[in-house]
Amino acid sequence: MNNQTDHRIHYQYRNEQFEKMPRRELEAWQLERLRETAGFALRTPFYRKRLKEAGIQSPGDICSLGDLKRIPFTTKQDLREGFPYGFLSVSKEEVVRLHASSGTTGTPTTIYFSREDIRKWTGFVARCIYGTGCTRDDVFQNMISYGLFTGGLGFHAGGEEVGMLVIPSGSGNTARQFRLMQDFGTTVVHATPSFLLHVEAKMKEEGVDRDSIKLKRAFAGAEPYSEDTRRRIEELLRIDVYNSYGLSEMNGPGVAFECQAKRGLHIWEDGYIAEIINPDTLENVPDGERGELVLTILCREATPILRYRTRDLSGFYTEPCPCGRTHRRLFRITGRTDDMLIINGVNVFPSQIEEVIMAMREVGNNYLIEIEKDGVLDRLTVKTEVTPDTFMDDTRPLNALKDKIRRTLQASITINPRVELHESGSLPVSEGKAVRVRDLRPLDI
Ligand code: ADP
Ligand code: ZN
Fold first, then answer.
1. Least buried of 243, 307, 422, 438, by fewest C-beta within 10 Å?
2. What span, in angstroms and rounded, lies between the C-alpha atoms of 378 and 382?
3. Nearest bound ligand to CA 154?
4. Which one has a higher pLDDT value, 416 or 102?
5. Which of 83-97, 103-117, 163-177, 358-372 has the lowest mean pLDDT?
6. Looking at the whole model, is its pTM more than 0.90?
7. Distance 436 CA to ligand 2 centre (A)
8. CA of 395 to the centre of ligand 1 (A)
């Protein structure tokens, strides 16, 4: 359901003064916080050197938000080289917690929080949750892994802050998840979109009656997914799904979130400065265009990070949101700059493949993309599950479906893939972020 045109929505704000702050005031607030953050950063050897080179010896050298552009970008590689304490800007006694990125693309990086940092972070997550219409009457089952990953404790604290009853169920074990939902009347869950699809397929398989659970909403994030996948989850589970974006370098969840209009993710500009750059020229692109998201955190003293190249692909909507919030909205994040596959010289993003297959009703809830070498050429195979009610012995409709997927994919990505159909529930499921691509080509060294 697209709520964009629904005028009956009663928008609720956790902190209206900040969420609807006029842009001029918001920018003045950002400048003040940026100076403060630069002050923290100047205490770390990494930024002391970087900022000095950029002519910034003290926070007072930042005169306007435009001066941010004088600061060089920070990359994941910089953070790795600073492991373990290179970016810590307070004494260890002031640190109360650490988190680490899930390491999707290599060695993890560590982020430290002071008590005040945790308080602010929790406030942003609570703002996101409340902005989807949740209240203290809700029962929230956090179906994501706890531990070093920020999605567990981050959402947990935010949910408690809103006053909901929070069930720290963690991810996996669908049978237990259903039981918890039934026993405690869960109304809202948080999970990866791939786990939500898995939950739905399992519900069908195990004969769980939809009417025995009270689920109304889900927060889905931690990995890219298409608008069609959102719609599929909403229709199959009969719930509202809200897109949740965050990354551990920027605290974790609570960076950007959809409001009830469900069109784009408000990035909380009182806590972050967001830029979109062209990843090749490194220049800022105009609003409305796609590019790489660069983020500066304004709400953390223990690990300040300035102009972080997230590698995530997004852009800004230009029109204001019907909810009245003044914070700009990001396009759905379609993947990372380094997700791009080059198959026989053609650039393909996995999100393009997902968009095609998840829009087809006959296709099930899970898929896998494989690339192999076939002589000198690359061969792309797209494996998808079929819906649970498909009869696998009936080859004629299956061949027709295969052909339809192949033709539609070819029209979209200009590559002719091999298509394999698999029984519902037979492709591997990950409890954390889904692994959708298996690149089996030998490395060219
Ligand atoms: P890692 O970088 O090791 O995966 P994180 O756990 O911090 O570590 O994951 C953050 C990353 O997850 C983001 O940079 C982004 O690539 C992805 N991500 C998180 N939320 C979303 C979302 N809603 N849509 C698309 N991608 C997302
Ligand atoms: Zn909005």
1. 438
2. 13
3. 1
4. 416
5. 103-117
6. yes
7. 31
8. 39
